[in-house]
Design goal:
alpha+beta, 46% helix, Maltose phosphorylase, domain 3, Jelly Rolls, 8-stranded antiparallel beta sheet
Length: 866
């Protein structure tokens, strides 16, 4: 018996691998043509860079923090949404590290991670199909139907959408059937060990999809109670007890991974989604044009066959499928699964699993069907396809949609053939055709939806990413990297940062291996985001809720925040004041900040954050130059600065401007701010409010040589920050230009800067003995002799929970200084300060995990005995 069972599972695993390979056939052909299985946007901007970044971090012995993550950040927490706790990624890291150490592969680079995408995807899908087959077998499905249902789930189009655009999303499909196996073990046998393990693995792997999968498991349990699969099941009261205790135990085991990740999420900032969320909306065409899920024609026909509902299993899965299809058309449900934020459709793997279960249950009942049972379903199904085709404005007569219609027609015809001749070959013909159409749908989806798009005139590659593209100046940048390496080799300031990123690719510093000033991640340190969006009003050249980058060409901020170098392209972004060209490579130049201030600065001049709340951004910059800004203190009198807006005039250009409303009738237009007789200094800081009132789409705002992209009013990624401060070199006219449309443009203020304060602070710092600083990852050490008796030291290390400080061996508080950075009180004389970072609540969470493991072992043994 054991030998037979082992053979059966060898066959299942082998068949799962074959289906996984065949389902990736299109991507495999693309791979051998030199194209990668990833998206142009998040795939290249986040997925590959983060895997490359974390592998290098982990294999260097650093697991929690990196000074190269933007301005510095706790990657274990902030990348918990991506890969830092992903079990699939951890296994990949271990295998890759072993292969590297034994010499099979060289040191993995970006291209290694791009190449392995398809291998990992095939192996992940193999595991998904095999595990889901086991799930279906636990509810007593026969081998072939169980495998077929698992194939419908594992190869569903949502898997390929996930793995191409946001690879870590696909892990949810691996751990969901494991969670359902645990649920079934409790319902059937009252055993909770697998459930505890499944809860823990879901929560360790990804806190966000643990939330999604737990909601889906709750929905599954409700349906199981409404439609019992078996006569004898564990009493519901005991089930509730086991679910509750097992859930708490599993959560406790996951604590060292889950708690830091959730803290990272809670410490993020994203503006509240204020748009109305309708209960019902046209989300997707489930039958013919699905970008998220496609309901197989076989399943649709089965759902319409009333005799099949006499079977318990079919009744359960069919009801789940129908309800899921209805919920799929609800943006409100999409919002609920996204934490009641903007609607996102990431839960539909449940629909695919329910559809697979319905297909598997129907296959076991096919021989009970008669001719009259399929005539009406065939007519209704045909009508539904016609309806979905007719009322979908996006559909055209194309291969993809035509193929689905043809397959639906053949499926209907095969049902009639089966009824006419219920022999074994007819059953296998239906099974074979269902497998064929499933694999074909996966490959057609890859080609039509994920790799190519209709560009109007020609069909061109949209996401067919090649090595040539990755090595181009649009991504990897050979000249850009060579220039940065040249500067790093000749300059002697290892802590200084480079201001450089390729347009829209804020993770360029990760890709090109340097300490930069930009990052793109859905979860970031909220103090830094507030610093950019609200405190200093730093325009990042692109409005976004999940990025920060550069410092708006504002020289004071570069000097304060360790911005030592800037890379610019010919004809590209302006160069900040005080930067001198030091090197050139091709079309790119490197500039050095001649007024860079020391990494660590001491002061006794304190300013109150509350006193500065309504002060102009330039006043706050001056306060940071003179001293340190702290919350909840009695501070010095704030520096004064003259607002010159009353000395200028406003002239519309190709536009009308009245009562704060700018109307550009055609082309490009705007306002000229005319300085008149005003005394011009080095730079002008122009602040204003702007919001587009018409044509809700992204628009480009230009202020002299400064260009920034603004989101449309309906974008879920808009910041809702419309008060801007733009720095430009002083000229007699400042030209504000926008495209055709109406704009709310008002609340102007104008300040000028001669940088006399920056020069004075730089001159003073050059006369003082340098402060010794070492900073690498989660460790920083500062040594100084405080002969002046200054009260505080300020560091450009982002303020973040998890840092602890010791001063001369004694623990001392870390202060939130200059809005988003680190300050520490000093003692007179020698100060040795050591900063150490661990994820928030990490060690208490480790203790909780160990206790939970011990309890789980005890509880599972107790349940087994009972």
């Amino acid at each position: 018996m054991n030998r037979q069972r082992t053979y059966q599972w060898i066959v299942i695993w082998g068949a799962s691998l074959v289906i996984a390979v065949l389902s990736h056939f299109f991507f495999l052909t693309e791979f051998f043509k030199g194209r990668y299985m990833t998206g142009l946007n998040d795939g290249l901007s986040q997925m590959i860079p983060f895997k490359y970044f974390l592998y290098n971090l982990y294999t260097s012995g650093e697991f929690f923090y990196s000074e190269s993550f933007g301005l510095g950040g706790g990657v274990f927490s902030q990348l918990g949404y991506y890969f830092s706790t992903s079990l699939v990624f951890v296994v990949t890291v271990l295998v890759t590290f072993l292969l590297e150490k034994i010499g099979v592969i060289s040191t993995p680079d970006l291209f290694y991670w791009a190449n392995t995408l398809i291998v990992i995807s095939i192996l992940r899908m193999t595991c998904i199909i095999a595990l889901t087959t086991y799930y279906f077998k636990t509810i007593r499905f026969q081998g072939v139907p169980a495998f077929l249902g698992a194939v419908l789930y594992g190869t569903s189009v949502i898997y390929f959408r996930h793995v191409t655009y946001w690879e870590f999303f696909a892990d949810a499909m691996l751990f969901f059937p494991l969670l359902l196996i645990g649920v079934e073990k409790i319902m059937r046998n009252g055993k909770s060990a697998i459930f505890i393990g499944a809860v823990a693995l879901n929560m360790i792997d990804n806190f966000y999809f643990a939330y999604v999968n737990f909601l889906l498991a709750f929905l599954y349990i409700l349906f199981r109670w409404l439609f019992p699969l078996f006569i004898e099941e564990t009493e519901k009261g005991k089930q509730l007890k086991l679910f509750l205790v097992g859930g708490i135990a599993g959560a406790g085991i996951s604590a060292p991974f889950f708690i830091p990740s959730v803290y990272g999420y809670l410490n993020n900032y994203r503006p509240a989604y204020e748009d109305a969320i309708p209960l019902v909306g046209a989300v997707d065409n489930l039958l013919l044009h699905g970008r998220i899920v496609i309901l197989p024609a076989f399943v649709l026909l089965c759902l319409l066959m009333t005799p099949l509902y006499k079977n318990r299993a079919f009744r359960f899965f069919a009801s789940s499928t129908i309800v899921s299809c209805i919920l799929h058309y609800s943006p409100f449900v999409g919002s609920m699964f996204n934490g009641f934020s903007a609607p996102q459709y990431r839960w539909e793997h449940y629909l695919s699993l329910a559809a697979g279960g319905a297909a598997a249950a129907a296959l076991q009942q096919l021989r009970t069907l008669r001719l009259k049972d399929i005539i009406f379903p065939a007519i209704v199904a045909t009508g539904l396809y016609i309806l979905f085709y007719t009322f979908d404005p996006k559909l055209k007569i194309r291969i993809y949609e035509s193929y689905l219609i043809i397959c639906a027609g053949i499926t209907i015809a095969m049902f009639f053939v089966f009824i006419w001749n219920k022999k074994r070959w007819a059953t296998w013909a239906i099974i074979s055709f269902l497998l064929f159409t499933t694999v074909l749908t996966a490959n057609m989806f890859q080609e039509e939806k994920l790799t190519y798009r209709d560009n109007g005139k020609n069909k061109g590659p949209a996401y067919g990413i090649t090595r040539e593209y990755m090595e181009s100046e649009q991504y990897y940048g050979v000249d850009q990297r060579a220039l940065i390496r040249k500067v790093q080799a000749t300059e002697k300031n290892p802590l200084a940062r480079f201001d450089w990123m390729i347009e829209t690719r804020n993770n360029t510093p990760i890709v090109q291996d340097f300490n930069g000033m930009s990052v793109y991640s859905s979860i970031l340190n909220k103090h830094l985001l507030f610093f950019y969006l609200h405190d200093l009003h730093i325009d990042m050249r692109r409005e976004s809720v999940s990025r920060y980058g550069s410092l708006g060409d504002r020289a004071n901020l570069y000097s304060i925040l360790n911005g030592g170098y800037a890379i610019r392209k010919d004809g590209g972004d302006p160069v900040p004041f005080g930067f001198t060209e030091i090197a050139r490579e091709g079309k790119y130049q490197a500039y050095r900040n001649d007024y860079l201030l020391p990494f660590a600065r001491t002061t006794s001049t304190l300013y109150s954050e509350e006193d500065l709340e309504n002060a102009p951004a330039l006043v706050k910059e001056h306060a940071m130059l003179k001293g340190i800004i702290l919350p909840d203190i009695e501070g010095e009198e704030i520096p004064e600065l003259e607002n010159n807006v009353n000395e200028v005039t406003f002239e519309p250009v190709n536009a009308t401007y009245e009562d704060g409303m700018l109307h550009v009738a055609d082309g490009e237009g705007g306002l000229d701010v005319v300085m008149g007789e005003m005394d011009l200094k080095e730079d002008s800081f122009l602040s204003f409010f702007i919001k587009r009132k018409t044509n809700d789409k992204d628009f480009t705002l230009k202020v002299n040589g400064f260009t920034t992209e603004r989101k449309d009013n309906d974008s879920i990624y808009r910041t809702n920050v419309n008060d801007l401060t733009i720095r430009v070199p002083s000229e007699e006219r400042i030209a504000i230009r926008v495209p055709k449309g109406k704009y709310d443009l008002r609340d102007f203020s104008l300040y000028t800067e001669d940088y006399s304060l920056l020069k004075a602070v730089k001159e003073q710092s050059d006369r003082e003995a340098p402060i010794e600083v070492e900073w690498s990852g989660s460790k920083a050490k500062i040594e100084l002799d405080n002969q002046k008796g200054d009260s505080h030291i300020v560091l450009p290390i982002p303020f973040e929970k998890g840092w602890t400080a010791k001063r001369n061996g004694e623990k001392t508080p870390i202060l939130q200084a200059n809005y988003a950075f680190t300050g520490i009180e000093l003692q007179s004389g020698k100060n040795e300060i050591v900063l150490t970072y661990y994820p928030p609540y990490f060690w208490p969470a480790v203790g909780i995990s160990l206790l939970s493991i011990l309890f789980s072992v005890y509880w599972s043994r107790r349940s087994r005995k009972v």
